[in-house]
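Box 3.1. Reading complex inputs
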Amino acid sequence: MAHGHNSKEKVVYVGDSRIRKRSEIATPPDYTSYPGKSEAFIPNFLLKEWMVGCVMLVGFLVLTISEPAPLGYPADPTNASFIPVPDWYFLFLYQLLKMPYASGDFVVLGVVGIPGVLFGALLLAPFLDRGKERRFYRRPIASSLMFLSLIGVIYLTVTSWMGYEDELKLTGTTPEHIVREEEARERALEGLPPKSNAAKGTVEVALVAPDDPAMESMKTATCLSCHGTDLKGQVGPSLRGIGDTLTQDDILGVIKNGKGNMPAMYDTAKSSGLSDEQITGIAAWLAKQKKAQ
Amino acid sequence: MAKGIYNWIDERLDITPMWRDVADHEVPEHVNPAHHFSAFVYCFGGLTFFITVIQILSGMFLTMYYVPDIINAYASVEFLQTKVAFGQIVRGMHHWGASLVIVMMFLHTLRVFFTGSYKAPREMNWVVGVLILFVMLGLGFTGYLLPWDNKAYFATKVGMQIADSVPVIGPYVKEFLQGGTIVGAQTLTRFFALHVFFLPAGLLALLGGHFFMIRKQGISGPL
């Protein structure tokens, strides 16, 4: 083509005279110097490599199908009790920063010093280990440093994960993605359509008739200590927009009998000096709490 | 017909040497698991690339539904997970692939280290490989935030605190990553851009270098 010896060529390029034609074509290194049976990459070797790929792909897909990717509840910056945990391959760094000599006054060591030396040494390994010897058992320093780092990283990862599990047990927390999955499974078993958690805490629902005396009654009956002073929920769920799902009678029933973690509040309300009318007033007012259309 | 088209293009662009170079190189016996089973350790690099391709493809499909803003991010992931046909599978592949690529890369690194393959003349390829590792960790960190659930949010918050504690440059790094003073709307769009455009661009460039060098130098000889 461009080197233009072929007179049958239909398209003729004008070569750049400043570029000299390469005297020899760069040939990839061949392995005739190695004893043994070398073979061509395509198709001989690739067909075998492809089988390894297939075995891995099958395993990968089985994992994907049997374990759906985790998804918790929408991010809520006001959630103070959430136990943060990074992805597993960052656990060793996370744990390192909890060590006494890598945190507090020594945080610089934990955040720059030790990881810097480790990753720096990894990056520059060829310039630190310059001998000709390739066999690892003839390179005791390089090999033992690598083994030590591996043991350290594995130890930190395992410790971190066990610490996280202990913390979960201690606080009686189930990770949110498991809670959400269980919830979805129960709904599916009951034949209900899947529920979306997305709206939770992202769309502000306004209070209907916020000046109603019911609000004052709820404060007296200690409702607000769990449902939040603005009814946006705290320990208990948000009551804003509750009228969309519950009627006045439903709400009265919940006050009298409790629901889930919520104890029956009727007696508490009575003993804090509320009359039956005031309690009915609370239920009536809550039933009016509907999302603005 | 296909041959005609091929010849037509080849006549003009001389494409044969390009793919012949990739196709025709010989694979020596000592890296071929068909001859020595223990040579399977030489597969990890190829498998890392294989999963990287899966990550790119599944990620491309995820962006068809994902919305990088704090109101809709979670909703779009939930929609993808529960409503979209095969959405759960595609997201699952991207999620588990992220871990698997780290595992494979880790094994590949160990193989190269313990066979001493990073020694002269292959120093540069090792350095590029470690840079690929860093980019992958960056992809893992930025991708973790995108579903915008509590786990994502609080892990990123911790990450930001760690960045903040680096002397001198820490606060600047934190502000650059957060795009402001808190982990919020700006952080999410920023992480999305890093995860989908900046880091993959860097990754592809580094991978190009990695493969160019291995073709140029050939695989290291038997021990």
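In summary: The first helix of chain B runs from residue 2 to 13.
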